[in-house]
Amino acid sequence: MRISTSQIFQNGIDVIQRQQAEISRTQNQLGTGRRILSPSDDPSGSVQALQFESRIEQTKQFQRNGGLAEQRLRLTEVTLASVGDGLQRIRELSVKANNATETDETRRYIAGEMQQVLNSLVDLGNTRDANGEYLFAGYKSQTQPFVMKNGEVEYQGDDKARQVDISPVRKMAVGDPGNQVFGDAGVSGALKDGNGTFTTLPGDGNTGSGVISAGSVVDRGDWQDALAAEVEITPPDPDPPFVESVSYYKVVFDDGGENYSVQAFNADGEFLGPGDPAGEAILEEADQIALGLNELPTDVPFKSGESIAFNGISFDIKGTPAGDDAFTIRPSEPQSLFTGVQKIIDALNSPVGTSTAPVNNAINCGLSELDNALGHVLDTRATVGARLNALENQDNLNRDQILQLETTISEIRDLDYAEAISRFNLQQVGLQAAQQSYTQVARLTLFDYIR
Where do the Flagellin C-terminal domain residues begin and end (predicted)? Predict the structure, then answer.
């Protein structure tokens, strides 16, 4: 085999270039701190590193979502605190107005201040976040949720709660629809009038000084059974029997106002029994089968302030009701807190004649509704606080996950500096040896042997 001078030179250059390439790669590894500079360095490790990087970016997005949700929820919490302060002020004014020393003029002054507080409550219901979106409009975040129409506050949002992802398997509500927070006539399960279970109302035609309390529930089961009761009435003729449901009750006073009876009515205002002598005779003739109606108080002597109890509820009437005065007791119905406040304002603006009973009845009912509204707002604030705590816990969990993923990536991709520096020094020695060998070989030539 013949070896030419050019081949010797080329082999020497190739060795030097390979050594330089290896040193350059090691220098890049030392500069970046990474063992894998391209997928070809470690195909399996590169795929794993890309998967973990994707998980890290996804988790960081969840953290950003949580940060935005936290800002919105904190603004919601502050807003609800202001709503609670406004309701508390209205309650203080209501207690002040429920005083016999107040006149029509002073009550109008109090109503004027209440109206200003009510306007501020509506403004709080229309609070916007930093992005200009309404907090309490549900999905309709660009629509003003509460507007005043014909003297009433109407809700224009929807009943959906906006949510964001804070983990691959967890969503968090970043707000509450306004009809759930502030109540609405079309939403069941939110705010209700009266004491939240039943409402006590004076009759429009009352002329006495009787003032009915908001009442309380003694046995919720009995009350619910009474509402579910159906009255089967079989007429004297052969027609099939028909069924009526009890819709509400009335406490009705006799001509002298000394005795009262509790009567039951259906949704159409038709008498079901007992307590009305004429109605009793008709129902007795018709062979009425009534669940619990025969236990309603009938012709009971009235004593001011003494408890009146039936079907698991209790209340009292103070003052002196006139003959034929009546008080209605019906199940509570959905109502917004704005409507409850407006009813108090309207009552205070109405002139009072010889008896303050109408305004006292309105304020008694209003105070009960204000207490319910305050409790409801506090409950909502509690849920907001719970969500803030959940966001904080999830953020800590996301941080731990990111740290664990970055640690795993480091084990796969990062460089072992001790090994790399030792390898770099060895490669430098190899390059120097190759360069020196090339210098010695380059001095040899066939021309030195030609004479």
Answer: 369-444
* pLDDT tens digits for range 173-232: 988 899 999 988 666 667 899 999 999 999 988 999 999 999 999 999 888 888 877 766
Q: Are the CB atoms for 142 and 133 separated by under 8 Å?
A: yes
Superfamily of domain 42-196+336-444+447-451: f41 fragment of flagellin, N-terminal domain (1.20.1330.10)
Bridge partners of 212, per DSSP, are 317
Nearest-5° Cα angle at 271, 266 to 276: 150
Residue boundaries of the structural domains of the chain:
42-196+336-444+447-451, 207-331
The CA dihedral of 66, 70, 73, 74, to the nearest 10 degrees, is 180
Q: Is 101 exposed, middle or buried (0-12, 13-18, 19+ CB in 10 A)?
A: exposed
**Contact (CB, 8 A) for 224 and 353:** no
d(CA 297, CA 312): 13
* CB of 222 closer than 8 Å to CB of 246: no
A 10 A CB-CB count for 298 gives 17
Element (H, E) at 77: helix 43-97
pLDDT 10s digits, 376-407: 999 999 999 999 999 999 999 999 988 888 88
